[in-house]
Amino acid sequence: MSSRYAETYKSWQDDPFGFWKAAAAKIDWISTSDQVFDPADGPYGRWFPDWECNTCYNCLDRHVERGRTGQPALIYDSPITGKKAVYSYRKLLDKVVALSAVLQDQGIGKGDRVIIYMPMVPEAVMAMLACARIGAIHSVVFGGFAAHELATRINDATPKAIIAASCGIEPGRVIAYKPLIDAAIEQAEHKPECCLVFQREQSEASLIEGRDHDAGALMAAAEAEGREVPCVPVKATDPLYILYTSGTTGQPKGVVRDTGGHMVALAWSMANLYDIQPGEVFWAASDVGWVVGHSYIVYAPLLHGCTTVVFEGKPVGTPDAGVFWRVIAEHSVVSLFTAPTAFRAIRKEDPEGKLISKYDLSQFRALFLAGERADPDTVQWAADQLRVPIVDHWWQTESGWCMVGNPLGLGKLPIKPGSPTVPMPGYDVQILDDAGHPLPQGTLGNIVVKLPLPPGCLPTLWNAEKRFFDAYLNDFPGYYKTSDAGIIDADGYLSIMSRTDDIINVAGHRLSTGAMEEVLATHKDVAECAVIGISDQLKGQLPCGFVVLKSGVNRPHEEIEKELVGLVRNQIGPVAAFKIAITVDRLPKTRSGKILRGTMRQIADHESYKMPATIDDPAILDEITQALELHGILNRV
Ligand code: COA
Ligand code: AMP
């Protein structure tokens, strides 16, 4: 079948506002207007100004009203607890209405912020939808972040409430969330008025009288009373959520997602990019704490009338590397979306794909990968094993949906390993040099997107408009700076080569080395430090920290290095996967004092490098090589 991609992309280029107005027909609006885009509003304009809608209505109520009452909306499959549950659209709506009533009883309403700190349980999805129903703005914090990170988000979002589960479960350990929440509230200047805690049997939380409430009990009471909570109309430009993501400092960026444009973009993507029909089962094996989880575990599948899967487990070890195939076969999943690292983990355990043959995957149609570079080797292995298209696609927390991909719904384009394919409608992707000049085809440079960004992308940062300009708009006037570097080839295919800032990607998780350096620098014995991302066969990248100790410190280095590893785990969280701290006498620098992190990374990754012309003392690079050798980094596989 020939692809309709070229004509679709051209129809967007010819009439961008008409294109998105037509796409908006998939959404039920409370009121609309003739204006699709207001260029004068916000840093670069706003989509669907003065249109009114409600995301929860579009995800649940309208499907119940139109006959999807009994269709599963959400399948919970938790190999880590051995539990499974199915929620029909009717049942999920009832639960969400009950939780909305509980939130309203706590005085939460339109525009109030609510932090959600939960593992992969159905109540996390209910909490997000309940906020959307009453016009509250949710901010989900990933469970692998520590109390300090939670405190930073509490201070920035100033939530009225926190919705949490009593614990999360990782292989071999139960993580009690409540002590982390209590510590975060203690550290934060802003104090939320209440905590609504879902008790889990693996570790029940003790509740502080007056502030904390048993969310499950309150919800059950609201449901028994048959409480009704209508969907609150909000403006399309009102925020649906804030999602914090790593920036170049310890202060994360609060990415704002608006309500209307987000729905329009996600609905378009389900049909045209993912090639999914309403009623089918779509599974994003991610976490609700990440953007992939927001968009493709919660909102997009439900907007599109699909069944979504909430999976509480890991690709390996819960119980084995066949769990993805078991879930696909058991729940008739047609498409899976995950990060390449999950496939690297599966391949390591089951290189010949023996576990795949145990399951009937006949209805499985496509695998979508994003979040980090999809290495051609892993993509080829997945293609050989699964015999379905393996679609790499590129996007960011900021965009909220795919920027460059292979639109299966418009007809698959030829796949080039190593490239996520072509820009989606809405994205005019270009490659510029550092001075902002267009680069010739096939030349590596800064990947930028011509403004305005399409519906679904961030309109600004929460409470930080100046930072929005500084981080994304100022360097290349008229363009959004992605902070990725890449190449566009003669067929218009993009390849993503690296980040241009200090962000690294560890097991598909976006982390800032700058934030880790800030933590290391707080250690009493550390004079200066540098954290780099070194390549890792499983996780893609791993953080590796170098520290120079203050003069006069004569404790054993191993002892200090252990403390530093513990410090990052305590301050940022286990998700940082910071396990390598190396003491060195000096850091390599330019004569103007800039640490040569790039050269250190090249040494650690066995890449050839040119001696930087401006290096202060070349001998320091030999010292770094020796230190890496001593710590076993240079002979890692
Ligand atoms: N709550 C608490 N701790 C968490 C957590 C959570 N929600 N998620 C991860 N952690 C912990 C892990 O237990 C681990 O702790 P440890 O240092 O004590 O072992 C640490 O954070 C690092 O986690 P991770 O980097 O994920 O490594 P892992 O060894 O647990 O798992 C993979 C490796 C590849 C199996 C796993 O990273 C994975 O499934 N990745 C998929 C990627 C993904 O979902 N990306 C989202 C974007 S699409
Ligand atoms: P996040 O905001 O966590 O989604 O991370 C976004 C970053 O992950 C991007 O800026 C890229 O650096 C990287 N990334 C995401 N998807 C891809 C992909 N398909 N190929 C290469 N890098 C990717």
Automatic annotation (TrEMBL):
<feature type="domain" description="Acetyl-coenzyme A synthetase N-terminal">
    <location>
        <begin position="5"/>
        <end position="59"/>
    </location>
</feature>
<feature type="domain" description="AMP-binding enzyme C-terminal">
    <location>
        <begin position="516"/>
        <end position="594"/>
    </location>
</feature>
<dbReference type="InterPro" id="IPR045851">
    <property type="entry name" value="AMP-bd_C_sf"/>
</dbReference>
<dbReference type="InterPro" id="IPR000873">
    <property type="entry name" value="AMP-dep_synth/lig_dom"/>
</dbReference>
<dbReference type="InterPro" id="IPR025110">
    <property type="entry name" value="AMP-bd_C"/>
</dbReference>
<dbReference type="Pfam" id="PF13193">
    <property type="entry name" value="AMP-binding_C"/>
</dbReference>
<dbReference type="GO" id="GO:0050218">
    <property type="term" value="F:propionate-CoA ligase activity"/>
</dbReference>
<dbReference type="GO" id="GO:0070013">
    <property type="term" value="C:intracellular organelle lumen"/>
</dbReference>
<protein>
    <submittedName>
        <fullName>Propionyl-CoA synthetase</fullName>
    </submittedName>
</protein>
<feature type="domain" description="AMP-dependent synthetase/ligase">
    <location>
        <begin position="62"/>
        <end position="450"/>
    </location>
</feature>
<dbReference type="InterPro" id="IPR032387">
    <property type="entry name" value="ACAS_N"/>
</dbReference>
<dbReference type="InterPro" id="IPR042099">
    <property type="entry name" value="ANL_N_sf"/>
</dbReference>
<comment type="similarity">
    <text>Belongs to the ATP-dependent AMP-binding enzyme family.</text>
</comment>
<dbReference type="InterPro" id="IPR020845">
    <property type="entry name" value="AMP-binding_CS"/>
</dbReference>
<dbReference type="Pfam" id="PF00501">
    <property type="entry name" value="AMP-binding"/>
</dbReference>
<dbReference type="Pfam" id="PF16177">
    <property type="entry name" value="ACAS_N"/>
</dbReference>
